[in-house]
């Protein structure tokens, strides 16, 4: 006989896409939920993400399968929310290798997993992806992934949070530094920055790069490799680009207002962390990043910076998602992953089902927190 008891009240810690999607799924199951976040909704990693929806590149089959299901949920969401179609686009992704490299093996791997991956010449790429300069594409060609896209996470988070409230849930913003309260081997509450306490039958920690530290306070280790990073966002620019670009020196997607969102591996490595923990972004690095973006766009438009989004990028220690019940602390659950945008809706659904019914999805078998030893 299944003796599992559905919790009457769940506190979800984190105002990003994982936290809010979990909260709304719990509310849809008529479970009372309180969503708590240290700042404003979408003020963390979800608010400064390239938010590329994909499962491109070399991935394990379980991770690839999970991400495919994640993309599926976004396509359903777009069909159900046509009023927000500008915040969720599926116009494909284009990527090519740098000098001295080749992406032929990457293309072959994607096809071996059944991913929609098309090898194109530079001229074919320009026909498929308006707004690019074909002269910037690698001489060997490029990979076009027709099923990829991007999402404006703050827009979606706002819609989901409104539904949480409409269904009787509570959303607590600007709660300050929060922590999980435990007693007798189980999670019992969330303590907020002002010392107040939100009692709960279960607690979900989905606080982006703060997740490992919050879990660590309960004696649970999940492994953390979250780097300091930033995205640069330009003012609206005239360009036909709609496809997500991943080029050797810059990754680019459109923003809802017509600007461009961009980042890169090399620019991320230049971020300096001050003694007080603040992040220092060099103006010259930002200028070069925008120059690299202009160089791959048709007409090489002049790009003007609107703002920088800087913070830590959530990446588990082994690079794989960490989702589900936390062993050793009853009533404690977590969601922590680099692929927050792609997995955002799906993880909330799977985690809420596990909390409500006590049954974990087989999709999460290789991504359980238990793969990390307690105390690490």
Class computed from helices, strands and strand pairing: alpha+beta
Strand content: 15-25%
**Count of helix runs:** 9
Q: How does the overall form come out from the CA principal axes?
A: globular
Strand order of the largest sheet: 6-7-5-15-16-17-14-20
- Superfamily at the CATH H level of the largest domain? FAD/NAD(P)-binding domain
- Look at the structure and give the CATH class of the largest domain: Alpha Beta
Quote the distance from N terminus to C terminus: 35 Å
Rg (C-alpha, Å):
21 Å
Mean pLDDT: 96
Total number of distinct structural domains: 2
Instruction: Tell how many strands the DSSP assignment holds.
Output: 22
Judging by the overall fold, what is the CATH architecture of the largest domain? 3-Layer(bba) Sandwich
Task: Give a verbal description of the structure.
The protein is 28% helix and 23% strand. It is an alpha+beta fold and 376 residues long. The chain folds into 2 domains: 9-47 and 153-224 and 317-371, 3-Layer(bba) Sandwich (FAD/NAD(P)-binding domain), CATH 3.50.50.60; 91-148 and 226-312, D-Amino Acid Oxidase, Chain A, domain 2, CATH 3.30.9.10. The strands form 5 sheets. The protein has an 8-stranded mixed beta sheet with strand order 6-7-5-15-16-17-14-20. A 6-stranded mixed beta sheet has the order 9-2-1-13-22-21. Strand 10 (179-183) and strand 11 form a beta hairpin. Helix 1 (17-28) packs parallel to helix 9 (340-357). The longest helix is centred in the first third of the chain and has 20 residues, at 61-80. Residues 9-352 form the FAD dependent oxidoreductase domain. This is FAD-binding oxidoreductase. It comes from Corynebacterium kalidii. GO terms for molecular function: oxidoreductase activity.
